[in-house]
Specification:
This protein has 5 helices and no strands. By secondary structure, the chain is an all-alpha fold. The chain has a single domain, classed as Histone, subunit A (Orthogonal Bundle), CATH 1.10.20. One of its GO terms (molecular function) is translation initiation factor activity.
Length: 116
């Protein structure tokens, strides 16, 4: 899809009004730590928009996995939806992100303390 100058200006104005869920400062920080440097705030806002879209897509797909899991277990009804790590992992795997626990995973401070 090619955009003419008018469409591009309209898009940039809409993006400037857009209030992303991930603040520009957070996006700027991660862009800087990854080696990206630019003084153009529009680039930061575009990355924020893309990141928000990605997170939303993953969350919606995870919700679908949750619904399929509940339906397969014979559940349903009016109970509250609970997303599990398996739902999220399945959704992320669809986007090429492998989410697995480290080989040595500690889930509480008590696990680290030795018996004295």
């Amino acid at each position: 899809m090619d955009m003419d100058a008018g469409q591009m200006n309209e898009f940039l104005e809409a993006m400037a009004r857009f209030n992303p869920a991930i603040p520009d400062d957070v996006i700027s920080y991660f862009l800087h730590t990854s080696g990206f440097a630019s003084d153009d705030p529009r680039l930061t806002r575009m990355v924020a928009l893309a990141a928000q879209k990605f997170v939303l897509d993953v969350a919606l797909d995870a919700r679908l996995y949750q619904q399929h899991r509940v339906n397969a277990q014979g559940g349903g009804g009016n109970e509250r939806a609970t997303l599990t790590m398996e739902d999220l992992s399945s959704s992320l795997r669809d986007y090429g992100v492998n989410m697995s626990k480290p080989e040595y995973f500690c889930d509480s401070e008590n696990t680290l303390q030795s018996d004295e």
